[in-house]
Specification:
single chain; alpha/beta; Spore Coat Polysaccharide Biosynthesis Protein SpsA, Chain A; eight-stranded mixed beta sheet; three-stranded antiparallel beta sheet; 8 helices
């Protein structure tokens, strides 16, 4: 997994209310004996020279050696988290992942980074959908994101219509070992259980 770190910021988007988890913080569910957030931060430090967490609950991430970026436009969902991270990034691109992805894979992420070119975003297609929270964004997206937020359009899929997107086909991704695990997220207790995860009852 070692190698030169890309001139890209790694971003964990952790702004959701976790309503489908009964309010429990998905980022700190333990999978494989380790909280998802801790594993992701460790992986991102190996891959990226700057690691950001977009969240309005900064206390949970203290001590993890990350930069906390609160939303400039609170209450506007993950698009606002990506916006805050792009504003804070010291690099021309960011790789964004949701906080509830326990199987993020360095090889798959590097594959996406290798496609950085003229597009404003590099977004996987997966299981007849797109995965905008396992994707690369250029700081050139900022004007389009700000227009969307000001217009009250908070859906990531709506914003993607306004920028140049390199959609990575599912066929290409399926050829990569680790893609299926990397693109899994756990939104519900059932999905968490399916990957062998649990909440540590002693964790506050």
């Amino acid at each position: 997994m070692s190698g030169p770190r890309a001139p890209v910021a790694g971003v964990i988007v952790a702004g959701g209310r976790a309503s489908r988890m009964g309010g429990r913080d998905k980022a700190f569910a333990a999978v494989g004996g380790q909280p998802i957030a801790v594993r992701t931060v460790r992986l991102f430090h190996e891959l990226f020279p700057q690691v950001l967490v977009a969240t309005n609950r900064p206390g949970r991430f203290s001590g993890l050696d990350v930069e906390i970026v609160p939303d400039v436009h609170p209450g506007c969902g993950p698009l606002a988290g990506i916006h805050a991270a792009l504003v804070a990034s010291r690099h021309p691109h960011v790789f964004v992942a949701a906080c509830d992805m326990p199987g993020l894979d360095a090889g798959v992420i590097r594959f996406l980074l290798g496609r950085i070119g003229d597009a404003d975003a590099i977004v996987p297609r997966w299981e007849d959908d797109v995965e905008p929270l396992h994707a690369v964004y250029s700081v050139a997206c900022l004007p389009a994101i700000e227009r969307s937020l000001r217009a009250g359009r908070h859906a990531l899929r709506d914003f993607l219509r306004d920028v140049r997107v390199d959609y990575v086909s599912e066929r290409e991704l399926r050829a990569l070992h680790g893609a299926a695990a990397s693109l899994v997220n756990v939104n519900t207790p059932e999905e968490l259980a399916a990957v062998g995860g649990r909440f540590d009852e002693l964790e506050g």
